């Protein structure tokens, strides 16, 4: 019976060209026989020319990032939460400071990379809650779309915000009033609170499980 289970495990791994095993026994960083990244991955980026290094974890589907990706400093602190579709940023992405405070929110719209042109629904500025369909040429990158918010690290209030419509900046350098931006309470974002519940710092150690 043990021998049969071992064979089953080997057959499962045989579909991967390369992979690593986490200390918890999870299979990470899988590359299939076609050379495509699949499933859960952890990427490590070293510091380069003064730019801080980081680690990120999330899911690949056919070598494209998909769904929620979390970014960490090399010290293990949560520094960002990004959302992807078709390998491009899509939705509201959040970035945090060293103390877990929200620094900025970016709003993105992904285009289907398999199409030369994509159709998107956008809200009519003159008629709220009314939408129109636009055709956008795919330049191979996500489009800034929506409100970008920048927060004061000391007060937690919005210090500046920018509004984009399909990549076009509508109100460059616009500032908001304290009355409209002051939060009822200065609280850490849910993602940070969830992260702080975990024991210890985020650090992934792996062992090589390459299959040739």
Topology, element by element:
Blueprint: H1 2-13, E1 16-21, E2 27-32, E3 37-45, E4 54-61, E5 64-73, E6 78-85, E7 88-89, E8 91-96, E9 102-109, E10 117-124, E11 127-137, E12 143-144, E13 146-151, E14 158-165, E15 168-169, H2 178-181, H3 190-196, E16 207-208
Antiparallel strand pairs: 1-2, 1-16, 2-3, 3-4, 4-5, 5-6, 6-7, 6-8, 8-9, 9-12, 9-13, 10-11, 13-14, 14-15
Give the structure's gist in a few sentences.
The chain is mainly beta. It contains 3 helices and 16 strands. The strands form 2 sheets. Strands 1, 2, 3, 4, 5, 6, 7, 8, 9, 12, 13, 14, 15 and 16 form a 14-stranded antiparallel β-sheet that branches. The protein has a two-stranded antiparallel sheet with strand order 10-11.
Description:
Helices cover about 10% and strands about 50% of the residues. It is mainly beta. Strands 1, 2, 3, 4, 5, 6, 7, 8, 9, 12, 13, 14, 15 and 16 form a 14-stranded antiparallel sheet that branches. It has a two-stranded antiparallel ribbon with strand order 10-11. The chain is flat, with a radius of gyration of 21 Å. The two termini are about 25 Å apart.
What distinguishing features does this structure have?
212 residues; mainly beta; 14-stranded antiparallel sheet; two-stranded antiparallel sheet; 11% helix; flat; disordered N terminus
Structural class assignment: mainly beta
Low-confidence runs? 1-12, 176-186
Number of strands: 16
User: SSE order, as H and E?
Assistant: HEEEEEEEEEEEEEEEHHE
For the biggest sheet, the summary is: 14 strands, antiparallel
